[in-house]
Design a protein that fits this description.
The complex is a heterodimer of chains A (about 160) and B (about 100). Chain A has about 160 residues and is an alpha+beta fold. Chain A has two helices and nine strands, in the order ααβββββββββ. Chain A has two domains: about 1-40; about 55-150, Immunoglobulin-like (Sandwich). By secondary structure, chain B is an all-beta fold. The chains are: A alpha+beta (about 160), B mainly beta (about 100).
């Protein structure tokens, strides 16, 4: 009698220990998944791209950069953009699309022979902010514009 | 036939240079409609514009420039007879180059 009772207690302790581990495992998995998701959110990718491109340089928002882009784009596969700037001594113009898998669309290095003027067509995957970073000899300046895409640029 | 079409227009002492390049610009996320296989990335990585042998634009482009890309730039000067040379290199090592004389 005592033997079987002891065996029963042993078994139940072992079982509960096991179930605690599995429960712990189940609880832990959503957390790790959430961490993984936050690693790949596009704002982080944008920040990483900015770090790689501009090496933690201070980027100041400027109203001297003009972005002409449609507010709503029916077809994300070809969205026209024109960037002009009244800043002096512009060295480069970069165009980034926040929610694209690869945010940097292009970086144009312009010689002093050129006006601060660039026109291109972008492929935008989903509604997103389009940021422009202008590099001059006295720092980095940025401006951004939101674009709503009704049909994405990632499908044929 | 060259893959690059170039147009230039002089306006108030400035010269606008526009170009249209025939290129698939695949970013590697599209699937083939019949086989459902991913179409490998194929896009222009470098673009350069020369004005009379001076490099005026050197651009690094990503896969998110649209198919058959269009670009426009504005030269501060530019005279009739000046030569514009545009060339590109893509991620598979293909390249093309085209000259244009400002009219």
């Amino acid at each position: 009698m005592t033997d079987s009772r002891r065996a029963f207690i042993k078994k139940s302790v072992a079982l509960s220990g096991y179930s605690m581990i599995t429960a712990g495992g189940l609880l832990a998995s959503p957390e790790t998944k959430a961490e993984w998701l936050s690693d790949t959110t596009s704002t982080d990718i944008l920040q990483q791209t900015l770090k790689q491109l501009f090496k933690n340089q201070k980027i100041i928002e400027s109203d001297k950069i003009d972005i002409q882009i449609p507010k709503t784009a029916e077809n994300g596969a070809a969205v026209p953009i024109t960037v002009t700037s009244s800043l002096n001594n512009v060295e480069s113009i970069s165009i980034l699309i926040e929610k694209n898998p690869v945010p940097l669309a292009a970086k144009f290095e312009l010689s002093p022979e050129l006006e601060a003027f660039v026109s291109a067509r972008l492929n935008i995957a989903e509604s997103s902010a389009v940021a422009v970073i202008v590099e001059t000899n006295d720092g980095f300046f940025s401006a951004s514009e939101k674009v709503i895409v009704t049909s994405g640029g990632c499908e044929v | 036939m060259s893959s690059i079409k170039i147009r230039s227009k002089r306006m108030d002492g400035k010269t606008q240079i526009r170009m249209l390049i025939a290129h698939p610009m695949e970013h590697g996320h599209n699937r083939d409609a019949k086989t459902n296989a991913l179409i490998p990335a194929h896009f222009i990585q470098e673009l350069s514009v020369k004005h009379n042998k001076n490099l005026v634009v050197s651009a690094s482009t990503g896969a998110h420039i649209s198919k058959d890309p269009y670009f426009a730039f504005m030269l501060k000067g530019g005279n009739p007879g000046d030569k514009i040379t545009i060339s590109w290199v893509d991620n598979l090592g293909n390249r093309d180059s085209q000259d244009h004389i400002i009219g």
